[in-house]
Amino acid sequence: MRIDLLRPVWHPLTWLAFIALPFIGPHLPLYFGWESGPFELFQAFILFIGGCMSLYIVFRPKPDISLSLANAVPKALLLAITFIWWFMCLRELSWGAVFLSPLGFDPIEGYKFSAHEQLPYYTAIHIVCGILAFFSFLAIIRCRYYLLAYWKVRRFPLPEVILAIVMQLFATTAEGHLLPLGSPPQIVKEWCELLSYLSLLVGQIIFLFNRR
Known about the structure:
The chain is mainly α. It has helices at 6-24, 38-58, 75-92, 115-118, 122-142, 144-152, 158-175, 185-209; strands at 104-106, 110-112.
């Protein structure tokens, strides 16, 4: 499929998947929406792949130096994007707590994990992530002229970012049991988050591989 066809194909598919949830969700096993369940593990996989993709571009052969700002992607920005992807990935996995023995079990919400209670390196996580977040912020500020150029030529994947935010809002609403859509709230939440992360991945593909 051509890269420029991803957007008109993916957006309708996303909304179809969302609309289909009231019909599919009630028939899915509850464990699909549990922490460390199939949906969450698939989310972590997508986030990991997103980081690998941006990191791959960092080590790709250098592009033609004649590329305009709108077509070039600086390594500092790619590294910041990689950090964001992998930060979200590790957060979905509770920083590794999901691979330990659960603290408890609920027949509706599933196994209980707590990074704060289970991980001896929990404090170090905040320190390391804080440092990396600071340098990522500096990288983004340093690349502001590139970002402005992307915006001017409409290379920035704004439609996918908006779609991802909308899906996250639905997920947050479902978590508060305000948007069940005829399905268990945890199924709705994890399903919407999955669509959100997939939208971001599609947006990154369009951004990285579709020059203007």
